[in-house]
Design goal:
The chain is mainly α and about 180 residues long. About 50% of the residues lie in helices and about 10% in strands.
């Protein structure tokens, strides 16, 4: 069980991060977007003690997958259980050819902090041009390997992957607890 039970998914920020990433990528498929977000969240969490998206990552076969965003993408695609939830999200993007994202509007950059954009840009520069296999291999990191298949990756393992120690993990947890109390 993760120490971090109070990190909440920020839908608006995530949708705008997706639009920003889609505007910068050549290959705009679910896999590439998920990995850029994972790496961005991981590095931002380790440097600033907070995730950009607040999404929960699941250790799937091809690497970490942001659970809430994946559900949004499937809803826009019209997939099974999620098909009735896609209505408002189609304003942001469309799904083409099963897993390619087409932006339907520009990102609202006011929804993303300067540090959010800095990390997304850094990770786009590092991983944006990698092939499917290359980025998959990079995402099969300690946090992913330390998680059972199709289970939630613990935030503390994501922090450890980027060099955070137990003291930093407990500091981040305390800060997130404080933020949750203030809501």
């Amino acid at each position: 069980m993760s120490l971090f039970n109070n990190i909440t998914f920020n839908e608006e920020k995530t949708l705008n991060a997706v639009l920003y990433i889609v505007g910068k990528l050549r290959r705009k498929d679910f896999h590439k977007i998920f990995k850029i977000l994972y790496f961005s969240d991981r590095e931002h969490l380790n440097e600033y003690g907070r995730s950009i998206t607040g999404d929960t990552y699941i250790a799937m076969t091809d690497g970490p997958v942001p659970s809430n965003l994946y559900d949004i993408f499937k809803s826009v695609r019209g997939d099974g259980y999620f098909k009735s939830y896609g209505k408002g999200f189609e304003d942001y993007f469309s799904v083409m050819d099963w897993d390619f994202i087409k932006a339907n509007k520009a990102p609202d950059l006011r929804k993303l902090s300067k540090t959010d954009l800095k990390h997304i840009d850094q990770l786009l520069a590092m991983y944006g041009e990698l092939s499917w296999d290359e980025i998959k291999e990079k995402s099969h990191d300690y946090a992913w390997r330390n998680t059972a298949a199709n289970r939630e990756i613990k935030f503390e393992d994501i922090i450890r992957e980027s060099g955070g120690d137990d003291d930093f993990i407990h500091y981040v947890k305390e800060q997130n607890d404080l933020v949750a109390l203030c809501k």
